[in-house]
Amino acid sequence: MTRTELIQQIKQKKSFLCVGLDTDINRIPQHLLAEEDPIYAFNKAIIEATEDLCVAYKPNIAFYESYGVKGWNSLQKTWEVLPKNCLSIADAKRGDIGNTSKMYANAFFDQSISGMSFDSITIAPYMGKDSVTPFLDFEGKWAIVLALTSNEGSLDFQNFTNSNGKQLFEEVIDKVNSWGSKDNLMYVVGATRGEGFIKIREHAPDHFLLVPGVGAQGGSLQDVCQYGMNKDCGLLVNSTRGIIYASNGTDFAEKAREEAIKLQQEMEIELERAAII
Amino acid sequence: MTRTELIQQIKQKKSFLCVGLDTDINRIPQHLLAEEDPIYAFNKAIIEATEDLCVAYKPNIAFYESYGVKGWNSLQKTWEVLPKNCLSIADAKRGDIGNTSKMYANAFFDQSISGMSFDSITIAPYMGKDSVTPFLDFEGKWAIVLALTSNEGSLDFQNFTNSNGKQLFEEVIDKVNSWGSKDNLMYVVGATRGEGFIKIREHAPDHFLLVPGVGAQGGSLQDVCQYGMNKDCGLLVNSTRGIIYASNGTDFAEKAREEAIKLQQEMEIELERAAII
């Protein structure tokens, strides 16, 4: 999916919502356990209930990988039902030396090899340039590189500061920017510190940002938009638990839709406020 | 596998060799393509030809993942034939927020969930403490954290330096040290700059180091030992291409064994020089 297509989807759906598919067999409704593949059945129902309200889906690969071969089978089937008008994000946090990153790129981008072709993948930048660039060699695909995350340990290394007062996450954005463009690079920026987006936007004014941490993790959508939105929106705000686990009864898909509608409506207000729609 | 058991294996086999299983369908001998699972057939033959000469095997997960469900099946079967007296390393470079790292730990450490239980996994540290500690909660398992790698892009971020002259890889080792111990933590340190080990050993004198980059990538075993060996050996030196692709004919396993013998003999000299055996 190109940048232009993504922006079109945002304007059309009046939404920049990404739904996280961190599907945990221990948290899905009991009645689904009778299905042949409960994780896939859950995902399919969630997707059908939300696809007109969001512009991206983000399966968290760890949740599938934890079940080994069986889990990869659920991931494969889930990939097959992801709507083509939504950006598909393999949330995999991969990154290795060049020849190995190339293999990870094949895994998530080359259907003829792996059976799957996501639009994008999340990348950990610690190993530098050759760990990122193999993902940028695929036309129409995106590398979404970790910059400033929202988790407890995010500041252990990400705010390591050089003698000019520059923090590691700033160095990451500046260097990674030079390896690609706003058409094939995004950054992961956590929502838990809205004002943190000011500094991010100094380094990446035009790039899309994938933003976890709104809702369950405590980030405010309004703060994220105030400090992080750009003229093309430039944000994909992820929600996982608040949507997919809104209910663990037989009404789980309906309740997920209700929560997605609430977020879409808040997002519509922000897009109007910024005169994007 | 405990630290004591690993040291025993090193002394007994007079070797600290790790064989990398970066098995690429395009590089294995043609005659194996007739097998039902050529990657597994290749790995099994390499393991049988080398298991008395090495103390660790390191499947590079990307090479399996690139084939999707089928590749994970080859990985599962390969794990089943890894000898119990060798440290098994899932070279996966994983790392995510706490609840997700827990899922990755289940994938590689908990056989009851994923079907596999490696002794160790490689970890990317960018996301900090909660991305590493879930792997340390498993008794007898190891987290092998990236410190200073040997690839082209390694210095893009790993030598980012604070106002006290401390580099990021040093900060990583110091902080990660405080989350575990020499009994459940190792570090990845590339072999391409032998003298680089002096600084590593200032921060991690007692930990085992997993060392890629000897041979094909240009590192010298003698330099690594001179600067990196400690009283318990403290090194696992990986070789991949030099061993597993020593021949692409029907004699591939035999030639792999010959190359492994050469390395084992060089290692025996180093272990004797350091009075470890």
TrEMBL record, chains A, B:
Pathway: Pyrimidine metabolism; UMP biosynthesis via de novo pathway; UMP from orotate: step 2/2
SMART domains assigned to the protein according to its UniProt record, in alphabetical order: OMPdecase
Keyword Lyase: yes
Domain Orotidine 5'-phosphate decarboxylase, residue spans: 16-256
GO biological process: 'de novo' pyrimidine nucleobase biosynthetic process; 'de novo' UMP biosynthetic process
Pfam families per UniProt: OMPdecase
Highest taxon listed in the record's lineage: Bacteria
Family to which the UniProt record says this protein belongs: Belongs to the OMP decarboxylase family. Type 2 subfamily.
PANTHER family the UniProt entry points to: OROTIDINE 5'-PHOSPHATE DECARBOXYLASE (PTHR43375)
Name of the molecule in the record: Orotidine-5'-phosphate decarboxylase
Gene responsible for this protein: pyrF
